[in-house]
Design a protein that fits this description.
Elements lengths: L1 H25 L2 H29 L7 H21 L7 H16 L17 H30 L7 H36 L7 H21 L6 H24 L8
Helix pairs in contact: 1-2, 1-4, 2-3, 3-4, 3-5, 5-6, 5-8, 6-7, 7-8
């Protein structure tokens, strides 16, 4: 039953992505409204799935690559809804929702069995560490989609001086700052957890190393933004390229560089 609910959510996000992309391409307000309704329904279905899986597992479902990918997709969907309904941000869904669909499709390829937590994962730091990672990755993904939106509008003739363009640029910066705070928490809580589990704060495990590389990349972004006053196209390109590092830290390290975090 859980698997059925999961694949229903994927199908719903596919329909949602289609409605948003088609609505944006053809400038059809009706399709766009239907897309937002579909996004609410899709996110609710995915939320029900995560709650049901958590109840079945007897824990918060964040312990392996499948569960993290699913929560990651959920985080992007929720942030997209918040940006639209609370902050009145337009034009991001045609980029964000296909991203959610791709992420869930990746999760669908992974083992979905509910397993017991490994001893190293049975810690009070489990929820704070993993949930901080989900928040930071989701914020970075939203910033990436905002960057794509910015470059798309620029290509269509929008001026960097337009208020809408400046708002996109500033919102991307805010999402990076938000994500950076939580990525810092990921590293700090991970260090404390590692000391408790493996008697060392830092072991240069591939996951740890790439988390640090990702942190440095976004620290450079904030430095360029705050101290060098970089804006606009340069920063839009930067956040898109930086997201490649996030994806590698999330997917590539697990597949290519097995280590202490291979279960994560």
């Amino acid at each position: 039953m859980l698997n059925v609910l999961f694949f229903v959510s994927i199908a719903c996000f596919f329909v949602t992505a289609f409605l948003h992309v088609a609505g944006g391409f053809f400038k059809k307000e009706g399709l766009q409204k239907a897309g937002w309704l579909a996004l609410i329904v899709s996110t609710l279905i995915l939320s029900v799935y995560l709650v049901a899986r958590g109840i079945s597992a007897g824990r918060i479902p964040m312990s392996n690559q499948f569960e993290f990918a699913t929560f990651f997709a959920w985080g992007i969907a929720v942030m997209t809804l918040i940006l639209h309904y609370r902050m009145k941000v337009e034009g991001i869904a045609p980029f964000a929702i296909p991203g959610v669909f791709v992420l869930l499709s990746y999760a669908a390829l992974l083992p979905k069995d509910i397993t017991e937590l490994m001893p190293a994962l049975k810690s009070a730091w489990f929820v704070s560490h993993i949930s901080s990672a989900i928040l930071s990755y989701s914020a970075f993904a939203i910033a990436c989609f905002l960057g794509i939106r910015y470059l798309t509008m620029l290509r269509r003739g929008a001026s960097p001086e337009d208020k809408a363009m400046q708002d996109l640029d500033y919102l991307s910066y805010r999402m990076i700052a938000f994500g950076f705070i939580f990525l810092t928490l990921v590293i700090l809580t991970g260090c404390i957890w590692a000391e408790q589990a493996w008697s060392t704060f830092w072991s240069w495990d591939p996951k740890e190393t790439w988390a640090l590389i990702t942190w440095i990349i976004y620290a450079i972004y904030l430095h360029l933004r705050i101290n060098r006053k970089y804006r606009g196209k340069k920063m839009a390109v930067y956040v898109i390229v930086a997201m490649i590092c996030v994806i590698f830290t999330f997917v590539g390290v697990n597949q290519l560089m097995p280590g202490l975090h291979s279960y994560g």
